[in-house]
Write a structure and sequence with these properties.
3 copies of one chain form a homotrimer.
Chain A: H1 8-22, E1 25-29, H2 35-45, E2 48-50, H3 58-62, E3 67-71, H4 77-92, E4 97-100, H5 108-118, E5 124-128, H6 129-135, H7 150-164, E6 167-171, E7 175-178, E8 183-186, H8 199-212, H9 217-238, H10 242-255, H11 258-264, E9 267-270
Helix pairs in contact in A: 1-9, 1-11, 2-8, 2-10, 6-7, 8-9, 9-10
Chain lengths: 271, 271, 271
């Protein structure tokens, strides 16, 4: 995304084509709820998942992975020990890593862990409004639920992005993304996205995949978000409920073309 | 459920409507096999899942959750440490919690853990006949398999319910539920329910969701069981095997109306 | 499989019928990514899963299970401690156990763990070419990805099979299986198999199920591989992408008949 960007939808479409062509290896330290779904989402979109989250191997793999996701959904003593090692490994190798602070603000331990990982300067932080507000020092929500509108988090997200030299991606009915200077909204999606567990978590992993094949983290986060939400619109057309929607979403993540993405993505960039 | 209950199907339908309206937060300490499925079942039926099972946070969340599920499917040192903390947190806050003693009787450690949790007076215990018989001191089955008919466990379940002031919900071709005084059977379902992993586990979580929005645990367990098994009958009509059945079950859990539930639930109450 | 085998497809079909008839209990020590999928695959094909992977219970269950799978996908301190206990329990009881060395060669710790488990003489080792080459002392691949053709691993697999008195099953576009003396290829499958996480892992569990009901591990591995890949061909006919393919694969694993398997399996045996 050059700045000013002449054609953000085209840049997003090119990013999807790059993921498909390069098939980046994405290491995920994620939670027991969404591990399978996340791997299947990555495979569908064209990336290669490796769910390695133990402290003996996390740093080792991070130094050779294309990108890394660190997700706090179900933290345990052992996986939390692995997380800073994976972050450090990615940083050493000059590879992007994404922090998804699931439930930050809602519970004490993970809020501390999220703050500590934030201090390691993630390439991108992806979360819902509650979680981002909690990272910014605001009051947290009720666990993993997004009780704050993404819009309300846009300002704090910009502050966090500047302070930590990172990109903030706030998921919601409209997604807000910022690197502290540029601000992007993505206005795609479907309400069924909130009826399937782990869509946000899987988006974090997709974000790492897109970051692995480009050099503009804001564009990567934008492209991942647009791909997920436009595919969701396609999937919702044939879905008969949340079960068939999740199945169709995998099918559409695999079939969506860069052209379709460019034509359907509703993106706005401001600086 | 007033006693005698003039209209149990209507009470069950009202319970489903209450879950949909209130969207209770259900904390699950469950196993690695069914965590995603359980979260998706809760989302489908209208509840909000939070899969928090580490000892640093389990008690903290239990004090604010609507209801708690503790499931012994894949116990580990760390998650077993979290379980009594979650149970105590729920009890402190006056919130219901459900024990699902997966595999009790089949393996030694979890049988002890289940007994210890039973001593903390769960609001509801949900299991198959083997597991309930094991809790009652009988011989256990072969692991997680339900080799005993639910009918045979009805008597021991009544004894357990009285001894521990809890509700026992025994799953089987016919489900038997009792609070030690009242006895309910639910005669819905489909054989495909036994071909999908985690239906019983997810039913435990649904039971916690229904308990969170009502004040009669036997009614809550009855309503959760009826919702799951009537939705299963609907799903089986379009299923082409266990894969498509599981997908359709999520769709039907999301779409089933209180009226459909009332019309299709085959319930019998005796005292 | 008598040797020479007059009719390998018929032997494979009979093995499937035996799994359906006997419903063997398969204990799985597997990873957080594929645990649900593996259990559902086992249920679909007619076996009974028990995902018990903690060190307090793993050996206890292995002594009564029909077969055991040990899969290294997401190793943790506690589960890695359970693995040799499960292997020893199975060996003591004279039951078959299958080693799936996921990611061996790609990461150091699990490569050591895999070598140590290999020294316990698994009945069958199932992996992709990278993993098998790593066990044979060659250079490993990039984590869990199969970057080497299964053909290239056929020779090293034969050496491993002879050295450890085990059966090696190498998954790929064409699957290669050997007990060091006999060599079988299975030429079924569909490219969609590589777009769904955990198909290989689930095949490892199916292999344990087939080994539980027969006395020829090479035949068991062949029958499991043929069942999975022929069912995949059936599933691919109706699939609209990887999501619907995975659903249809479960449906077809449940519906495929021994006759269909015999008619469609493309098997070659050489000695």
């Amino acid at each position: 995304m050059t700045d000013p960007t002449p054609d953000l939808p085209s840049a997003v479409a090119a990013a999807l084509a790059a993921v498909r062509e390069q098939g980046p290896l994405v290491q995920c330290l994620t939670n027991i709820v969404v591990a399978q779904w996340t791997a299947n989402v990555l495979l569908a979109v064209g990336a290669a998942p490796a769910m390695v989250d133990n402290p003996r191997e996390a740093g080792e793999l991070a130094r050779v992975a294309g990108g890394v996701l660190i997700n706090l959904g179900t933290p345990y003593a052992e996986t939390v020990q692995a997380m800073p090692l994976a972050a450090a490994g990615a940083a050493e190798a000059g590879r992007p890593w994404v922090l998804d602070p699931v439930g930050a603000g809602g519970m004490s331990w993970r809020t501390e862990v999220a703050g500590s990982l934030l201090a390691q300067s993630p390439t991108i932080v992806r979360g819902n409004a509650s979680e981002i507000l909690a990272l910014a020092g605001g009051a947290g929500g009720r666990g993993v639920d997004a009780t704050d509108a993404a819009d309300a988090a846009a300002g704090p997200a910009q502050g966090l992005a500047r302070e930590h030299a990172t990109v903030l991606a706030v998921s919601g009915a409209v997604d807000h993304l910022t690197d502290g200077r540029r601000h992007v909204t993505v206005s795609n999606g479907d309400p069924l996205l909130t009826r399937v567990t782990g869509v946000g978590c899987a988006l974090g992993a997709m974000t790492a995949a897109f970051a692995a094949v480009g050099d503009d983290p804001l564009l990567a986060a934008t492209a991942a978000t647009a791909t997920m939400t436009v595919a969701a619109e396609q999937a919702a057309r044939t879905a008969d409920g949340p079960g068939s929607f999740a199945v169709a979403l995998l099918d559409r993540l695999a079939s969506i073309t860069p052209d379709e993405l460019r034509a359907s993505a509703r993106l706005e960039l401001s600086t």
